[in-house]
Amino acid sequence: MGSHYQIPYFDPHDGGIAAEVLYLLEAPGAKAVFSGFISRDNPDETAKNFFQINQQSGIPRKRTITWNIVPWYIGSGSRIRPANSDDVESGLRRLNSLLDLLPKLRAVVLVGQKAQRSSSNIAKLRPGIRLFKSPHPSPLFVNSSSSNREKILTALREVAACLDTSWTRHPTA
User: How far apart are alpha carbons 158 and 62 in whole angstroms?
Assistant: First the structure.
């Protein structure tokens, strides 16, 4: 990794180090690089879908943080390229440092197929954390079938139910 890598910051509207849920997507897009933040408030359709579905899920934003399995921009200009296995492997080597910063983390939501490939690595790094899988909220996926938005919402509602249960059992945590 060198100085030419563009890594957007965490969204200050999210939970920061107090987050209990980490949303792990593939890689930041051009709008994230432009805004400087990995944010569901970015002006693109993926962020818009993610924002709306999160609102519907009932998970308070301050209980979450969003990041990418490949934390740096892997595109050129306004177009991102798909993450390859070298990108994902390199990102995974840095993931443990991120997880160390999140002492209240209870769940990781692997959003999209590239992030889902890291499930066994995350399970080894943090065996006590619940892992969930969700489709990616890109317009390509969400708009290809009327049931696809519901698939993402169902996954996030499972996360919300897990948080509600664990919160009830451990209200001072």
Answer: 18
Q: Which domain holds residue 25?
A: 9-169
> Count of domains in the chain?
1
d(C-alpha 165, C-alpha 169), whole Å: 6
Confidence of residue 112 (pLDDT cuts 50, 70, 90): very high
d(CA 8, CA 153): 26
Write the CATH number for 102: 3.40.470.10
Short-list 112, 19, 113, CA closest to 63: 19
- Is 154 domain-assigned? yes
Residue 3, in any domain of the structure: no
| The model's pTM | 0.91
Write out pLDDT tens, residues 43-76.
Answer: 999 999 999 999 999 999 999 999 999 999 998 8
